[in-house]
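Justification of computing resources. Each target in the renewal requires a structure prediction run like the one illustrated here; the chain below, 255 residues long, is used simply to show the kind of job we budget for.
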Amino acid sequence: MIFKTKETKLFIILSCFFIANAIIAEFIGVKIFSVEGTLGWKPLDLSLFGIDHLSLNMSAGVLNWPIVFIMTDLINEYFGTKGVKTLSYIAVTMIAYGFLTVYSSIQLVPADFWINKQLTNGLTIDMNSAYNSVLGQGLWIIIGSITAFMVGQIIDVTIFHWIKDRTGEKGLWLRATGSTVVSQLVDSFVVIFIAFYIGGNWTLKQIFAVGLVGYIYKFIVAIAMTPILYIVHKVIDGYLGKELSEKLIKEAQNN
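Resulting structure tokens:
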């Protein structure tokens, strides 16, 4: 049976982590958190392009996107461009399906007993309004996020193989990290440009300022995740064996 082969099992595992983390990142991304506050630091309070009091306020989706980037590089390494693009299309379809399902659930008439819930501190919250506010992301944010994800993935796989064509099998850190930091540069600006410039009233100065601050964080995380990529790569090589690993990597270069 095909599911008994090591390469098939590996592809299924990487695919599941890739798609699951992409979907989770989209849905938890509605929460904006303070990186400095979480780490116990003082806000950076930066000023860029005339925009003051900028700090590292990030979408909670950044918890999962680094895993997606690692999966992207590993799938690219062992299964090639076609593997990454196919899974990216599937992920985007599933994300869109998820948002459609959530939107449909928002239209359902809530049960009377469920609407008002009393918390342990004595406060009462409107569960229906809370549900709609948390899960009901704006249409332009959804469009921006999905577009940025697809554009970023295409750029990532293209640069990954462009570097690999010139460096050979050596320099995993260069092709993996290099492709990620470039694709994330584009992703950082595309999502907020669509969501808040086309779909909102932000100025271009705000777009560049907020996008650059966000990219600084993503750049640092991409560099920090490089050792983890090497560890997972080594585990996969050990699982596949030298001969099968080299075979898949060579075939991936032509896909």
